[in-house]
Here is the input.
Amino acid sequence: MKTQKLVVFLVACFVASGLHAAPLYTITDLSALGFDAGFGEGGALGMNASGQAAGYAFKGSNYHAVSYTSSTLTDLGTLGGTHSVANGINSSGQVVGWAYTASSETRAFLSSNGVMSNLGTLGGFASEATAINASGQVVGYSYGSQTLAHAFLYDAGTMTDLGTLGGFVSVAYGINDSGQVVGRSSPIGNSIYHAFSYSAGVMTDLGTLGGTNSVANGINASGQIVGASQIAGNSVYHAVRYSGGTMTDLGTLGGNSYAKAINNGGHIVGYSEVSGSVARAFLYKDGVMKDLITLIDPLSGWTHLREAQSINDSGQIVGRGDIGGHQHAFLLTPVPEPSTAVLAVGGLMMLVGLAMRRSKLQ
Here is the structure.
């Protein structure tokens, strides 16, 4: 009887101690991959299905677009100027973003097989590419002859103006493999903006949560869209998901929140203020928004995960955070669940075994 009571007590203690306290993600310092080449601080802004990431890294006072693997940082260069930033990467490793030319003009670029190409503009002085899908379609925004930005779709060498919701300005931020585009556009004038989706030549206003402004940042294969909207009163932005004609408030960790990307499993990442202007990277899964810093090893050395920018279907997440007093690009990789289960069962069996041995010695 004593043995049975002891076993029950130990099992209860084991469960109460928290089987889920173990880190749910390992974290990789992607910026450290460039230390030998003189690169320092940086951030990751996009990722593909195989875990390749794209972003930027500082080298002295200049920053360059880079691509990251788990073991290599590659400098993608510029279009002849000083700076460049990569915003997205597709399954083929093609990267898009913006770069300065030799005359300090900003141009959207496509980097493929080590060659950075200038995608031009809609007739104006600047452009930026924000995302690329598996077939190589690129979206972003460009200034036209009227010095106002319009969303564009670049496909097979042609940049097409996607228009607006009726106002003067539009910007595209995401595209899925079906060619559906999302972003923000002014419905009237250029002082307010609404999230939009664009498909088959039609731009649709997705509305707001009751406030004035909203934006769409990402879209998955099934057409689920994420972004942010002001709530009634315009006091704060909340991260949102738009699906089936309904915009859902995802809440916050304390202040403004913004959803940046959604994978095909419906898992969402972004960032939210927790107090004042302090931002924390979050994962929204199963109806709960979690601060990502709480899901990694507290002894990892990372003190702050500022932004989560992209998530793939394997659950890997990239973004920007603080380690050693510097801002670095990070990659989070889920800890396989079977390993956690095996450890839990093994630990429980060990406790039971110790209880049985103690009983025999009495």
